[in-house]
Amino acid sequence: MNPTNQQILIKTVARLLTPPRGILAIDESMPTCNKRFEALGIPTTEENRRAYRELLITAPGIEQYISGYILFDETIFQSATDGTSFTSILSAKGIEIGIKVDGGLADLPGHPGEKITKGLEGLQERLTKYKKLGATFAKWRGVYKIGENTPSEECMKENAMLFVKYAKLCQENDIVPIVEPEVLIDGDHKIEKCYQVTARNLEIVFDELKAANIFLPGLILKTSMVIPGKDSKLAVHGMEIAQETIKCLKEKVPDIIGGIVFLSGGQKNEYVTENLNKMHLLGPLPWPLSFSYGRAIQNQTLQSWAKNPNDIAHAQRLLLKAAEKNSLASIGEYEDEKYIQNRSKDVV
């Protein structure tokens, strides 16, 4: 890769990860988006998906807290009610346009219950198309479920090789690749097991990326936090999650990587904010560290819109509030509202 291409990637990464902003993922596939709509009684139509995403994209002032939106294939071609394309609206706000390019999950042959990611077929053509629409970064997700014998080395290696092929194509097209190896929160495992799996998986991923000469300063890691399984019923203090996550990342992620963003991964909204904030209280970090949340920022907005689809302004205010909290957490300046209220009472 020549220096000019490298500089394009570095500049895109810088725009995405300049504090105090993060990335908003609105890249839910149609089945996932429809499932969330159904749970709230929203008719699952293309127009409703478009209308909801218009709400997210046109929120006034969102660019204070959000540097990039990850879109779904359906969304990147859509427009607002007045006919203005979503990509034009984002560009006018100075927000980077991202696109989910993986094709979902498939069974890993010979490994019951384990998954690999589809989507390499036709990826070059799709990247060309997305770039013409203004996309400057992309995302590819792999998933790993912690069990007695999972994830296997074969599963981690296969997904790492897919990350390499995807990242190479992205960088050849001057598109910053986000690699997302998500260790799922499902299960009753302890935090120590999550640490072990996350560390080994990151080791394999970066071994493969480096072996293939992927330009690491022009790549972003989107990762899950090191946490116990949601069925473990173990009380773990947020600072322990922060400490274990940072320790794991420092050990396994090269310092020269463009940056790291977290996925919310099924955690409660306030937990992901507090955990990210605590990580920034642990001292200087070797890479930019921010967020790439979907549900954790959207949840209250979607619920509000479902109850009253005509009150767009209120739903957008909720979106901005959630984005602001995580923006503050991305620089270690977030304080929980309950804590602030209690502290005020103490002062009185």
Tags for this model:
48% helix, TIM Barrel, lyase, Probable fructose-bisphosphate aldolase class 1, 15% strand, 348 residues, alpha/beta, 13 helices, EC 4.1.2.13, 10 strands, glycolysis, fructose-bisphosphate aldolase activity
What does it look like?
Pfam families: Glycolytic (PF00274). It is an enzyme of class 4 (lyase). It catalyses: beta-D-fructose 1,6-bisphosphate = D-glyceraldehyde 3-phosphate + dihydroxyacetone phosphate. The protein is an alpha/beta fold and 348 residues long. It has a single domain, classed as Aldolase class I (TIM Barrel, Alpha-Beta Barrel), CATH 3.20.20. 48% of the residues lie in helices and 15% in strands. The chain has 13 helices and ten strands. It is globular, with a radius of gyration of 20 Å.
List the helices and strands and how they pair.
Layout: H1 3-17, E1 22-25, H2 30-39, H3 46-57, E2 66-71, H4 73-76, H5 86-92, E3 96-100, E4 105-107, E5 115-117, H6 123-132, E6 135-144, H7 153-172, E7 176-183, H8 191-211, E8 220-223, H9 238-252, E9 259-262, H10 269-279, E10 289-293, H11 295-307, H12 312-329, H13 337-347
Parallel strand pairs: 1-2, 1-10, 2-3, 3-6, 6-7, 7-8, 8-9, 9-10
Antiparallel strand pairs: 4-5
Helix pairs in contact: 7-8, 8-9, 9-10, 10-11, 10-12, 11-12
InterPro entries: Aldolase_TIM, FBA_I
GO molecular function: fructose-bisphosphate aldolase activity
GO biological process, one term: glycolytic process
